[in-house]
Amino acid sequence: MGRHGKSQHQKRARAAAQLRALEAYASAPHSFVFARGPAGPGVRQLSLDVRRVMEPYTASSLQVRRRNSLKDCVAVAGPLGVSHFLIFSKTEKNVTFRLIRLPGGPTLTFRVTKYSLVRDVVSSLRRHRMHEQQFSHPPLLVLNGFGPHGLHVKLTASVFQNMFPSINVHKVNLNCVKRCLLLSYDPDSQELQFRHYSLKVVPVGASRGMKKLLQEKFPDMSRLEDVSELLATGAGLSESEAEPDGEHNVTELPQAYAGRGNMKAEQSAVRLTEIGPRITMQLIKIQEGLGDGSVLYHGLVHKSEEELKATLATRQQKLLLKAERRGRQEQDIKRKEEQREAHRKRSLEGMQRAEAPSVDQGNGDSEAEDPGQPDGGAHVSDEEEDEAEYFRQAVGEEPDEGLLSPPC
């Protein structure tokens, strides 16, 4: 009989594959996507939709309460390996989107001018294509229009690129590319378009009837006498099922792709279906650190060199004052600790003295009054008063001092 189970080589290969998968997952950038403040139901749903875009390298069940500050989120993000924060908030006038790179920044602040939720985008489509397997791999990031338009545009593109794992075009598995995230920058309006698409690859050069036969769902041929009618004329198929393909989306596949008819070195068409959300935003400012550093770029406020120098000097002064206050606080803490330690030592010494037995010196007589001795002082005073009164009546004079005192 043959051996049952897996060989040692298979077990080692599987363990090595699992280790590589864990290392790849740990090295990939991770993110927290959440809404802060009184954002409202629309903005909160937008944050959930963007969280869906960032799958699978994001916290899907993240809950941030009102009492949680940004420092709390940063403290939690460190041990989990989170590299980016995507924060949505709402004021009376605008919807704000902040993109923070951990742990040292920078912080990019955008003003959201328009947005559409996933349910709005899907409801506007006649046929949408979205399933759970698409979110088991990160989307393919495509940047458009991020040319030589300034350092702030270059920095924005770099931050967005670092949000997703890098792709090696020579080793990538095409079956892992199921979604596409398109970021398009318009230098005239300085607006950034955020679009999320589902990716589908279909073979070209076949009739509509042949494409129907290649699909998983078999077409209805109950009214046909022979299969050749379907292949020759495409009978029973609507014109809306024929999607136009051309040079803009037809390519030669370097490897086989999931789906019937997508063979290696064959012509196939890449089709995109928008699945949302859809965001139009404008870069407002870029700051150092986690939103509390100096402003590197501001889209609405432009300062001269003198104003920038004055602002930098003011900030340096504030940092020096802060460092000075921190030094005084550390000195006060050290002084109070020394005082507490000295007080503790004195308390221990007093407790030791109280526990030690008292030793009487000399003859052992105590100067304290004996509570058992009868109280005779009042009686002696009454007798002296009676004798003095008798002396006055008999002699007619006051007695001399010490004449009537009792003998020792």
TrEMBL record:
Q: Where in the cell is it found?
A: Nucleus, Nucleolus
Lineage, top-rank taxon, reads: Eukaryota
GO cellular component terms, semicolon-separated: nucleolus; preribosome, large subunit precursor
| UniProt-annotated stretches for the region Disordered | 323-408
Q: Which InterPro entries did the record assign?
A: Brix, PPAN-like
Q: Where is this chain compositionally biased, Basic and acidic residues type?
A: 323-341
Protein name, entry field: Suppressor of SWI4 1 homolog isoform X3
Q: What biological process terms from GO does the record include?
A: ribosomal large subunit assembly; rRNA processing
Per UniProt, residues of the Brix domain are: 29-292
Q: What is its main location?
A: nucleus
Q: Which gene encodes it?
A: PPAN
The Gene Ontology terms for molecular function here are:
rRNA binding
